[in-house]
């Protein structure tokens, strides 16, 4: 049982060393790229919301006309 405790602490240290080396490889986007992507996401969400809202109104009026 004592061996597994030592192996677990060694594995944890190794894991965190690997994690640190992987984080150093990350290339973060610059401010301009983040701004462009944020605007694209927000405008897409608004457009999709409007499309869903319009379709909902059309279906609602169509069902009330049928029923």
UniProtKB/TrEMBL annotation:
Membrane topology: Single-pass membrane protein
GO biological process terms on file: intracellular protein transmembrane transport; protein secretion; protein targeting; protein transport by the Sec complex
Cellular compartment(s): Cell membrane; Membrane
Bilayer-crossing regions: 38-59
Keyword Transmembrane: yes
Annotated protein name in UniProt: Protein translocase subunit SecE
Entry similarity comment: Belongs to the SecE/SEC61-gamma family.
GO molecular function terms noted in the UniProt entry: protein transmembrane transporter activity
Function: Essential subunit of the Sec protein translocation channel SecYEG. Clamps together the 2 halves of SecY. May contact the channel plug during translocation.
Keywords: Cell membrane, Membrane, Protein transport, Translocation, Transmembrane, Transmembrane helix, Transport
Listed HAMAP family: SecE (MF_00422)
Subunit note: Component of the Sec protein translocase complex. Heterotrimer consisting of SecY, SecE and SecG subunits. The heterotrimers can form oligomers, although 1 heterotrimer is thought to be able to translocate proteins. Interacts with the ribosome. Interacts with SecDF, and other proteins may be involved. Interacts with SecA.
Superkingdom to which the source organism belongs: Bacteria
Keyword hit for Membrane: yes
GO cellular component: plasma membrane
InterPro entries the UniProt entry points to: SecE_bac, SecE_sf, Translocase_SecE/Sec61-g
Origin species: Lacrimispora celerecrescens
Chief place where the protein resides: membrane
